[in-house]
Write a structure and sequence with these properties.
The protein is mostly helical and about 180 residues long. The protein has seven helices and no strands. Helix 4 packs parallel to helix 6.
């Protein structure tokens, strides 16, 4: 990925995406659509979740290489995952993803990563930190919706597995 990281730009991407869906309630649903929107922008509109949610995203040729947009996507996914499950161990998924990609790159096996060819480069710690911030905000969202309680440990792992294996066909669908 090319470019410079700017936390202000990342925050603006996050806020703009969340504001785009400000009429949605609860906030977890807003985070799901904001994540899908940001993901779609990064993938130049070619994303199954965006199609399923009927989201139209602008085609910005530099989006796949935009580090700030990538960080915003990490934040929004983590916020959605933590907010929809309330799983306090969601942090482990964010850190685990960082460790997994680090090992793949260290072993020169990055071609084995399930990442589109339009994305280049190893996800740096900045993306992980944005993800961890998203987890914190998502857990707060969950607590606010569930009278201060958290969800069950392991819920995020199962939701993440389902998201990955079903190609987002049931991503965060209301129950």
């Amino acid at each position: 990925m090319a470019g410079e990281r700017d936390p202000g730009k990342t925050r603006k991407y996050i806020d703009d995406a969340m504001d785009r869906f400000s009429s949605m309630t609860p906030v977890v649903e807003r985070a799901r659509f904001a994540w899908a929107y940001t993901r779609g922008v990064r993938r130049l509109g070619d994303d199954p979740l965006c199609r399923r949610l009927k989201l139209i995203v602008p085609r910005i040729e530099t989006a796949p290489e935009d580090l700030n947009l990538a960080d915003a996507e990490h934040y929004l996914y983590a916020r959605f995952l933590a907010g929809s499950t309330g799983d306090p161990s969601t942090h482990a998924l964010v850190v685990g993803y960082k460790l997994w990609t680090t090992v793949k790159y260290a072993r020169a096996c990055e071609k084995d990563l399930p990442i589109e060819s339009t994305f280049s480069g190893h996800p740096p710690a900045d993306a992980m930190n944005w993800g961890l911030t998203g987890v914190q905000d998502g857990l707060l969202d969950y607590r606010n919706l569930h009278r201060g309680r958290l969800g069950m440990a392991g819920g995020a792992l199962e939701a993440n597995r389902q998201l990955a294996t079903t190609q987002y066909q049931s991503a965060g669908a209301p129950r």
